[in-house]
Amino acid sequence: MTAAAGGAPLEAALFDMDGTLFDSEPLWDVSLADLAAMLGGRLSAETRRRVVGGNLRDTARIVQEDLGVEADVEESAAWLLERTRQLFALGVPWRPAARSVVESVRRQGIPTALVTSSHRVLVDEVLAQLDPGMFDTVVCGDEVTHPKPHPEAYLTAAERLRADPRNCVALEDSAKGIAAALAAGCLVVAVPEDGGALADGHGAVVVPLETVTVDRLASLLAARTG
């Protein structure tokens, strides 16, 4: 465990996937635009922003509402899932500095979890492109009863790692994900590509991903708990 002087130990690091560690949002841009076209319309920029960090069914519903289309939400969600899986299978790049952050945490012996709203079929496409064992546990959006912004996914990850959520740091990039991690009791570090999109932090500490270090995470946790 790593801790700054006088602070609680950093028991685990919990990472969101899309937009936080991996530059997958452009792939979602494509699949969402394709879904809108399949439904006979074009997705607005505002609706694209609304669905960031959301679960698949809600995303399909919001897209249909935006287009004014009446269609089966489950069918639209299934179509979107398969189209996104096809794109993920072609390769999902790391965000700059993201891999080094995860690897530095692991070198310190701190347990890691991937906590995502994406379905397992998408997550498995990403994991297949990584070194085995990079994450000690993975919690997917279709493996919880209540997806983000509910705290269940983060609470589940902490429980699996036998960590106190209050001594865990969660890295996120969306308002929904931040709300979920905060509700679970975690210290939340927001690392959005567009810092202005989370200017007030929504309760998280906003920092550039390339400046994240284990010592900085431990210090932020110590400052909160000290």
Automatic annotation (TrEMBL):
UniProt xrefs under InterPro entries: HAD-like_sf, HAD-SF_hydro_IA, HAD_sf, PGP-like_dom2
UniProt xrefs under SUPFAM superfamilies: HAD-like
Entry superkingdom: Bacteria
Coiled-coil parts of chain: none
NCBIfam families: HAD-SF-IA-v3 (TIGR01509)
PANTHER family: 2-DEOXYGLUCOSE-6-PHOSPHATE PHOSPHATASE 2, PSEUDOURIDINE-5'-PHOSPHATASE
Protein's recorded name: HAD family phosphatase
Organism of origin: Actinomadura luzonensis
